[in-house]
Amino acid sequence: MAAPSAPLARTASWPTAARSALLLVGLLLFGASVRLMLDARVGVGPWDALNAGLVQHVPITFGQGSILIGAVLVALAYAWLRVRPGLGTVLNMVLIGVFIDLLAPFSPHPTALPVQWAQFAFGVLLMGFATGTYIASRFGAGPRDGLVLGLGERYAWPVARVRTGVELLVVAVAVVLGGPVGWGTLAFALSIGPSMALGLRLYGLERRK
């Protein structure tokens, strides 16, 4: 799966301490990307829309719903695709939320619609790079990313297509549950797959198919 010619592929041979730092940097950038998209205010992501719809039907909080969905995805990826959770899986579920909150005072809040969409688009690109960065640490992928990578490996499907398909399925379920689906939700679903694939490719974690 690895492509040695990728610009950042050498991270695979880094010592454990350096890879641990790479993991934290990737998760920090991931949190920053979510913060930027939230503050762009053009719509929530598919998984947040799903979560918001879920809590309308189940007596749990938004945070509890997020944890529950993550746990279900980890269990599904392991049982179906044999994707083993690791330190990166756990820290993904714990630290990204912390980083989102910590970065709130530093995130722009644009009011002009073109600037809002530009910030949202940058957030999507940053998330793709952040995904490649933390996965390149080789400590395991988060719940959603692990499921996407597992499906891609099992069925030899391109990551971009798998992620897009998963996100669109989540959008459909969110609509059924009454979640707040908007144009930003759809834009994210269609763009995060190519962005994730590009981020992985920079680290030699996906070949072009």
TrEMBL record:
Pfam families recorded: DUF6198
Keywords for this protein: Membrane, Transmembrane, Transmembrane helix
TM spans (from-to): 21-38, 58-80, 87-106, 118-137
Transmembrane keyword on record: yes
Domain of life: Bacteria
Keyword Oxidoreductase in annotation: no
The name this protein goes by in its record: Integral membrane protein
Taxonomic path: Bacteria, Thermotogati, Deinococcota, Deinococci, Deinococcales
